[in-house]
Amino acid sequence: MQKVYFDSAATTEVRPEVIAKMVSVLKEDFGNPSSIHGYGRSAKNHIEQTRKNIAKYLGVKASEIIFTSGGTEADNIVLNSAVRDLKVKHVITSKIEHHAVLHTVQEIESRTGITVSYVNINTDGTIDYEHLESLLDSSDEKSFVSLMHVNNEVGTILDIDRVGSLCKEHNALFHSDMVQSVGHFDVDLSKIHVDFTAVSAHKFHGPKGIGFAYIRKNSGLKPLIFGGEQERGYRAGTESVHNIAGMDEALRLSYEHLEEEKKYIKELKQHFIDTLKNKIEGVKFNASCNNSDQSTYTLINVCLPVPEEKAGILLFHLDINGIACSKGSACQSGSGKGSHVLTEILSDEDLQKPSVRFSFSKYNTKEEIDYTVDVIKKFIEE
Ligand SMILES: Cc1ncc(COP(=O)(O)O)c(C=O)c1O
Asked: pLDDT (tens digit, 9 = 90+) per residue, 92-101?
């Protein structure tokens, strides 16, 4: 049976070069990076070199990068520390954020009583920038804005320069979850007014369980995890050296091949859009994900005209035909709940129909797209 992986927004296939680097570090550089002997120093070297490389790609200082277990931990650290240490009393976010932000904000709200405002979302998945401005204008307390750069379900790209400038004008702190953008877009934080970001390696062909937070220098954040002096005391615990080295290699390769891979994947996305339009009457592209100016090239999210009685088994049907994709985002699969993002964007009528996210990588081909669209077409018509 043909096997097709269209779920790279959930996680990506690890590049062979990344695996080779990780195996070599596991074998050769297994010392504890806090040890002062040669084994320890070799391990430490991987960590500090990775920190410098990341800093160079993102246009920040190496000391502003803190390694974490991934995007979720980075989001949690930033949000919790900001409210605890920076006297933030008002968080402005949106209802289409990843749960790593949304659930964290809700937990902080119920525990501390801070005010949380949600910026309005337009039907094309963009935020209402004027509403954001009015929320900032009317806030007489220290505000903290948390808005993701690229939405993981529908792909909408935030106008991060505009939000950064608005935050600067209003003296508000700005956190942007960049889990779906770093490694896929050039991100130069020296040019954007952003104070904090969260990044995860498994979204750019690196290993799972590793990522980092960018925390602007002199931000005033204090540690949340206590123990040893790792990460300058900011995040205690022996570092995952092989994962950090794997992330280094993955990020290096992503940026080295960024333009050619972006071009290739953009063509795949366009081919998917064209083939769906040609073969499936009534297909809809959620949140204008077919608009290449405002949506990431790495995914599409489509509402399919599947007869009501078969809607519930579409994903199962794709799966038994070897096609891996997602309903909303993978973080929800199994929970049985609909997507909180689509709930904010789609009409009640479209919410009744199945929506599927197909997300891509350099490992996909046009043949896989043709095969997938044929499977969907037969399923609808049979
Ligand atoms: C936008 C976004 N933020 C955060 C996360 C969580 O990252 P991690 O899996 O590294 O914890 C994800 C993963 O799906 C994501 O897509």
From this structure: 999 999 999 9
